[in-house]
Amino acid sequence: MTITLRSVLRDGLLLLALTAIAVVLGTAAGRYYQKSSTRPAVESFDPAGLTFDPGATPVMIATSTCPACASARQWLIDRDVTVRELTVDQSDEARRIAGSLDVTIVPTFLIGDTRINGFVEAELEARLTVSRLSSKAADH
User: Fold this and answer.
1) Which residues of the chain have pLDDT under 70?
2) How far apart are CA 76 and CA 62, in angstroms?
3) Which DSSP state fits 44?
4) Per-residue pLDDT tens for 70-95?
Protein backbone atom coordinates (compact mmCIF):
# COMPACT_ATOMS: atom_id res chain seq x y z
CA MET A 1 0.00 0.00 0.00
CA THR A 2 1.54 3.28 -1.07
CA ILE A 3 0.83 6.55 0.58
CA THR A 4 0.98 9.34 -1.90
CA LEU A 5 2.01 12.87 -1.15
CA ARG A 6 -1.39 14.03 -2.35
CA SER A 7 -3.27 11.91 0.25
CA VAL A 8 -0.97 13.04 3.06
CA LEU A 9 -1.53 16.69 2.15
CA ARG A 10 -5.29 16.16 1.84
CA ASP A 11 -5.49 14.47 5.25
CA GLY A 12 -3.28 17.15 6.82
CA LEU A 13 -5.42 19.96 5.43
CA LEU A 14 -8.59 18.23 6.60
CA LEU A 15 -7.15 17.85 10.09
CA LEU A 16 -6.06 21.50 10.11
CA ALA A 17 -9.53 22.65 9.01
CA LEU A 18 -11.26 20.56 11.69
CA THR A 19 -8.89 21.91 14.34
CA ALA A 20 -9.60 25.49 13.27
CA ILE A 21 -13.35 24.87 13.44
CA ALA A 22 -13.00 23.35 16.92
CA VAL A 23 -10.97 26.35 18.15
CA VAL A 24 -13.49 28.86 16.77
CA LEU A 25 -16.45 27.00 18.28
CA GLY A 26 -14.67 26.56 21.63
CA THR A 27 -13.75 30.23 21.81
CA ALA A 28 -17.31 31.32 20.99
CA ALA A 29 -18.75 28.94 23.59
CA GLY A 30 -16.30 30.20 26.21
CA ARG A 31 -17.21 33.84 25.55
CA TYR A 32 -20.92 33.03 25.73
CA TYR A 33 -20.49 31.17 29.03
CA GLN A 34 -18.39 33.97 30.52
CA LYS A 35 -20.95 36.62 29.59
CA SER A 36 -23.87 34.55 30.88
CA SER A 37 -22.21 33.70 34.22
CA THR A 38 -20.62 37.04 35.06
CA ARG A 39 -22.16 38.85 38.01
CA PRO A 40 -22.67 42.58 37.85
CA ALA A 41 -20.00 44.67 39.57
CA VAL A 42 -22.53 46.15 42.02
CA GLU A 43 -25.75 44.58 43.23
CA SER A 44 -28.07 44.72 46.20
CA PHE A 45 -28.26 41.87 48.67
CA ASP A 46 -30.16 41.10 51.87
CA PRO A 47 -27.84 41.21 54.89
CA ALA A 48 -30.56 39.74 57.16
CA GLY A 49 -28.99 36.26 57.15
CA LEU A 50 -25.62 37.53 58.39
CA THR A 51 -24.59 37.43 62.05
CA PHE A 52 -22.99 40.88 61.76
CA ASP A 53 -23.90 44.25 60.29
CA PRO A 54 -21.98 45.10 57.09
CA GLY A 55 -23.30 48.65 57.47
CA ALA A 56 -21.35 49.20 60.68
CA THR A 57 -18.09 47.71 59.39
CA PRO A 58 -17.69 46.90 55.69
CA VAL A 59 -16.77 43.30 54.91
CA MET A 60 -14.24 41.98 52.39
CA ILE A 61 -14.56 38.33 51.37
CA ALA A 62 -11.18 37.25 50.01
CA THR A 63 -8.58 34.51 49.68
CA SER A 64 -5.05 34.71 51.01
CA THR A 65 -3.43 34.12 47.61
CA CYS A 66 -5.56 36.33 45.35
CA PRO A 67 -3.56 39.20 43.73
CA ALA A 68 -6.68 41.38 43.44
CA CYS A 69 -7.39 40.77 47.14
CA ALA A 70 -3.84 41.84 48.01
CA SER A 71 -4.27 45.01 45.93
CA ALA A 72 -7.59 45.73 47.65
CA ARG A 73 -6.01 45.21 51.10
CA GLN A 74 -3.27 47.70 50.26
CA TRP A 75 -5.77 50.15 48.80
CA LEU A 76 -7.80 49.99 52.04
CA ILE A 77 -4.67 50.41 54.20
CA ASP A 78 -3.57 53.42 52.15
CA ARG A 79 -6.95 55.05 52.83
CA ASP A 80 -7.06 54.04 56.50
CA VAL A 81 -10.27 52.06 55.97
CA THR A 82 -11.11 49.34 58.47
CA VAL A 83 -12.97 46.31 57.13
CA ARG A 84 -13.84 42.91 58.50
CA GLU A 85 -12.01 40.42 56.29
CA LEU A 86 -13.41 36.95 55.76
CA THR A 87 -10.67 34.81 54.21
CA VAL A 88 -12.36 31.77 52.68
CA ASP A 89 -9.25 29.62 52.43
CA GLN A 90 -8.50 30.10 56.13
CA SER A 91 -11.85 30.12 57.91
CA ASP A 92 -14.84 27.78 58.04
CA GLU A 93 -17.09 30.72 58.95
CA ALA A 94 -15.85 32.66 55.92
CA ARG A 95 -16.48 29.66 53.63
CA ARG A 96 -19.99 29.23 55.07
CA ILE A 97 -20.85 32.92 54.59
CA ALA A 98 -19.36 33.03 51.09
CA GLY A 99 -21.32 29.90 50.20
CA SER A 100 -24.59 31.30 51.55
CA LEU A 101 -24.07 34.47 49.49
CA ASP A 102 -23.00 32.49 46.40
CA VAL A 103 -19.70 34.38 46.21
CA THR A 104 -17.85 33.39 43.04
CA ILE A 105 -15.58 36.44 42.71
CA VAL A 106 -12.95 37.58 45.19
CA PRO A 107 -12.64 40.06 46.58
CA THR A 108 -16.32 40.69 47.24
CA PHE A 109 -17.25 43.63 49.42
CA LEU A 110 -20.38 43.97 51.53
CA ILE A 111 -21.22 47.53 52.52
CA GLY A 112 -24.66 47.93 54.05
CA ASP A 113 -27.05 46.24 51.62
CA THR A 114 -24.70 46.68 48.66
CA ARG A 115 -22.43 44.00 47.31
CA ILE A 116 -19.42 44.87 45.13
CA ASN A 117 -18.10 41.89 43.15
CA GLY A 118 -14.41 42.39 42.48
CA PHE A 119 -11.97 45.18 43.27
CA VAL A 120 -13.78 48.11 41.65
CA GLU A 121 -12.01 51.18 43.08
CA ALA A 122 -14.54 53.81 42.02
CA GLU A 123 -17.46 51.88 43.51
CA LEU A 124 -15.55 51.19 46.72
CA GLU A 125 -14.58 54.85 47.06
CA ALA A 126 -18.18 55.99 46.58
CA ARG A 127 -19.75 53.38 48.87
CA LEU A 128 -17.15 53.74 51.62
CA THR A 129 -17.51 57.53 51.60
CA VAL A 130 -21.27 57.20 52.02
CA SER A 131 -20.78 54.54 54.71
CA ARG A 132 -18.32 56.75 56.65
CA LEU A 133 -20.63 59.76 56.45
CA SER A 134 -23.57 57.66 57.67
CA SER A 135 -21.63 56.26 60.63
CA LYS A 136 -20.33 59.73 61.61
CA ALA A 137 -23.87 61.14 61.50
CA ALA A 138 -25.08 58.28 63.71
CA ASP A 139 -22.32 58.99 66.24
CA HIS A 140 -23.49 62.60 66.74
Assistant:
1) 1-2, 32-38, 130-140
2) 13
3) E
4) 999 999 999 999 999 999 999 999 99
123 CB neighbour count, 10 Å cutoff: 17
In the prediction, which pLDDT does 131 show? Answer: 64
Fold assignment, 42-139: Glutaredoxin (3.40.30)
Assign residue 50 a region (left: φ > 0; alpha: ψ between -120 and 50; beta: otherwise): beta
Residue spans of the domains in the chain: they are: 1-38, 42-139
What angle, rounded to 10 degrees, do the helices at 121-139 and 67-78 form?
A: 40
Residue 34 carries which DSSP code? H
Distances (CA, A) of 113 to 16, 29, 139: 53, 34, 20
Other CB atoms within 10 A of residue 25 CB: 10
